[in-house]
Amino acid sequence: MLCTTPKGWLNFNAVWNVVVVAVALSTLTGRETAEHLFSVAEQEEHDLALASALEHYEASIAADPSNRWALRATARARWLRARSEGGFAPLARLEHVRRDPAAQRDGVVVDALANDLEAFPPGEVRVEARMFVAEAYATRLGRTADADRELRQLLEESEGDPPIRVQAATRAVDIAMARGDVAAAKQAADRVAKIEPQLPHRVYRWARRRVIERGAIAILALFVVIGGATAVRRLRPPSRSELRRFFPRAVAVAAYLAIAAALVANAYERGNALPFLLVPACILPIAVIARAWALAGAPSRAARVVRATLSAAAVLAAAFLVLDRVDVRYLESFGL
To answer: The pTM is what?
Structure first.
């Protein structure tokens, strides 16, 4: 059902509007006529008498192309004509919901519009209705699966202004990235690659970070298993005393690094101090395990090289994971 207003009432209103306008115009000059027609068209658009509104916007321009409302009348007429499919019934249905401030929070209303728009003819209105429904599902109702469905159907549409298509693709990419679906994110971004080439690049960088993330987790796990297991099995009492003496120094160095880096970050307008506090906190246990491993491990040159290499890799892995979770801008500045 595309319109809740009785058909007979719409016809009566249309006839009455024609009569009122005809009587009013008989006593006006050209400019006055144009401005009066514009006022009538605005009221009709407000009342969702959209066909009459389009007619009177265009009549206003014809009556006096230089009247003070000519530019706005031209813009509104162009907007309405681009959305006239289905005799304006789809647009009236969408506008009825879109003008309701509480509509996007009402799941019943949004579901009803989502159901009705399937009967809309192809065109701008169906695209805009899908975007409205998708935004409501995603941002107001927390139904990301339903939002994703509508966004993907929107991207399948042959109609739609480029900005709306880019908005839909960006939202679909965000949803796919939130659930870690690389293939879905790439598919959505590729839909608008010609008009928004930065979106596929963004997805590519994100997908690359997901590969690095898995590698970082593997490195940390390997470091903890090998270094920790070696320290637990082979650390002798004298070495444990040395480790206890090392711990306060490691804490002091980590605190110094955190405070100094945080002060530098806060000196910049867009700086975020949190990563600089978390990275030293994550490096501290790595340093302790690395020292315990060094005390308990083999003294050969090859063993020392392996320990140093894996410890350094663990530090980089921890730093990557912190920045990826807290503020990805720092990784992007390195091209990641």
So the answer is: 0.70
